[in-house]
Amino acid sequence: MSNTTKQSKDKYEELEHIRKELAEEAEQLRSKLKVIEGRAIAVALAIEVWKSSKGTKVAADPYLREFKGMTQVQGLIKIAKDNGNNRFRLQDAKKILLEAGLVKSKKNASVILYTAIQRSEKFKRVAPGEYELIFHPVEVLKSTA
Predict the structure, then answer these.
(1) For position 126, what pLDDT does the model report?
(2) According to CATH, what is the number of the domain 62-144?
(3) CA distances from 41 to 10, 34, 115, 139 (A)
(4) Domain spans in the chain, listed from the N-terminal domain onward
């Protein structure tokens, strides 16, 4: 009987050793994956820069790249939602949208965004230079469907 106990203890230790080796190998692979993902992002950015023949500024910040293809109002909605309180300051939004390329004229950016805010009717003014996203019941129903 003591022989079977010793065998089961040996098997247990062997399995523990294998588990430990596999955990170490998995950690090494995770580390290697992070390095490869970083390289892939760098190559994608290099391709994007290379393709831009106009010499326009390419957003290096991944957050700014999320605004690509959006309208100004969609960009403002995204900024409001990303702030966590569904609000944004016009000056902060202006900087972000200028850097993202949704607003071309730095000189007229405030007027352009103010006009977009007023025409969209999706925001209400809560303080000077601060706006809050208005949730309409129909839009809430569409987003849950």
Answers:
(1) 92
(2) 1.10.10
(3) 47, 11, 36, 35
(4) 1-57, 62-144
Radius of gyration for the alpha carbons in the chain, expressed in angstroms and rounded: 26
pLDDT reported for residue 136? 63
pLDDT of residue 5: 81
Q: Per-residue DSSP letters for 20-82? A: HHHHHHHHHHHHHHHHHHHHHHHHHHHHHHHH-TT-PPP--SHHHHTTTT--HHHHHHHHHHH
Q: What is the pLDDT of residue 141?
A: 46
Question: Residue 123 is inside which H or E element, if any?
Answer: strand 123-127
Q: Which of 125, 95, 122, 120 is nearest to 109 (CA)?
A: 95
Task: Compute the C-alpha angle 60/66/69, nearest 5°.
Answer: 110
Per the listing, tokens 């109002």 go with: 73
Provide CB contacts within 8 A for 45, sequence distance 6+: 58, 60
Q: Are 66 and 112 in contact (CB under 8 A)?
A: no
pTM score: 0.54
In the predicted model, what is the mean pLDDT of residues 109-115? Answer: 93
Helix-strand-coil percent breakdown of the chain, rounded to 5?
Answer: 65, 10, 25
